[in-house]
Amino acid sequence: MATAGPDFEDMVHPPRPGRDGSDASVRSARFRREREGDWQRLEELLAKLGPHGRGELSSRDLLALPHLYRTTLASLSVARSYVLDSNLVQYLDSLALRAHLAMFSSRETILGALWRILARDLPRSVRFLSLP
After folding, report:
1. DSSP letter string over 54-112?
2. Which of 75, 72, 69 is nearest to 103 (CA)?
3. First vs last C-alpha separation in the chain
4. Is the pTM of this model over 0.70?
5. Looking at residue 98, what is its pLDDT?
6. C-alpha 86 chain-centroid distance
7. Which residues, other chains included, contact 11 with Cβ-Cβ below 8 Å and sequence gap of 6+?
8. Which residue, 121, 113, 79, 120, is CA-closest to 96?
9. I need a labelling partner for 128 at 20 to 30 A (CA). Which of 17, 34, 76, 109 fits?
């Protein structure tokens, strides 16, 4: 049965580098080549969202975002565990951080939160406390 993507055994137990380190660079290039499509797709979705996460994504893109995020985290974990190219580790770390912020950070600005508290939450609390 043929699978699309990296071999699970190579991902869990990649071959160890030889004395000259040549296996490490080959392994790093192979690792990148097999997964780069997912990373580029995540980059595209993050670009669509924009710097403040207010862009529009289709329902298909919204469903793909968590999967690509988890795939990137798994790649980052493998890259760190097997000390692959340090530039690759830094890139994946940055990509994972940007995806995390896009998915989990608040969309509200500080001024918006302050306005919400003063205009809605505080008056609501005062009315609630003043009820008999």
Report:
1. -S---HHHHHHHHHHHHHHHHHHHHHHHTT--HHHHHHHHHHHHHHHHHHHS----HHH
2. 69
3. 72
4. no
5. 93
6. 18
7. 78
8. 79
9. 109
